[in-house]
């Protein structure tokens, strides 16, 4: 009798990984799948025709004091515009939206979808090195981009998610009510990190702290994370230490940096929130590797030790 792993492997061989991922997402989250289909069409039209589009004035938002920062790579550079369109479409518009790209991912330059967004205010920076997922936040403090004194928060976003119109507003509201916290829609409480046999996988979707501040709540970037400016410091671009202790696990490294600066973390809601995914971008990523192989357990323990056992 075939086990689940054998069945998954067979289906991937027959149908291909992308189709299998879409089918799995449709089966596990049918409501989100339906929303994803609608949103993908909505933002496809919005990017190309302007229909449904909200006018976005870069740097002149009177509603938000946040910079939204994200990155992508060559396999998603043709679809990341869908996520950015959803960020442009917020009820509270971000002060700026920055996309960080590695030059090695630009085989044919940037696609027309991003060129159109650039004309509407998207800021794009091209990096000579490639620190993978760390690009979304680690360069914000030591790059040539000046941060306005109006900006209070940096919000990171993933490159394959449709963020609802209330997304930014709720993050900022929660932040102002919890000034010594980083804010997330999704995270895991690592209640047993001090115990022998600790495993990150066993704590996935542990929401023991609900929507109250907790030191051991680890935000995950998929649904977005808000960082107050003073929660960050130069260690977010200490790539020597990052590559020794926490490679490809930016959420973990940023958690320990903010924790060492006296910031706990808190959810927006009592339970984790997952937003619709961009179907065109459903492929294996760092999360699949780190979670599936439980690589995060070792990275958390090593990074905790590097930061003098904060947990």
Labels describing this entry:
single chain; 311 residues; alpha/beta; Spore Coat Polysaccharide Biosynthesis Protein SpsA, Chain A; seven-stranded mixed sheet; two-stranded antiparallel ribbon; 10 helices; 9 strands; 35% helix
Descriptive account of the structure:
The chain has 311 residues and is α/β, with parallel strands linked by helices. Residues 7-21 and 55-59 have low confidence and may be disordered. The protein has a 7-stranded mixed β-sheet with strand order 3-2-1-4-8-5-9, with helices on both faces. Strands 6-7 form a two-stranded antiparallel ribbon. The longest helix has 20 residues, at 30-49. It starts with a helix and ends in a 5-residue tail after the last helix. It has a single domain, classed as Alpha-Beta Complex (Spore Coat Polysaccharide Biosynthesis Protein SpsA, Chain A). It has helices at 4-15, 17-28, 30-49, 80-88, 112-119, 167-177, 239-245, 250-260, 286-292, 295-306, and strands at residues 66-71, 96-102, 123-127, 153-156, 181-184, 187-189, 217-219, 225-228, 264-267. The radius of gyration is 19 Å and the shape is globular. It is built from 10 helices and 9 strands. Helix 1 (4-15) crosses helix 2 and helix 2 (17-28) crosses helix 3 (30-49). 35% of the residues lie in helices and 13% in strands.
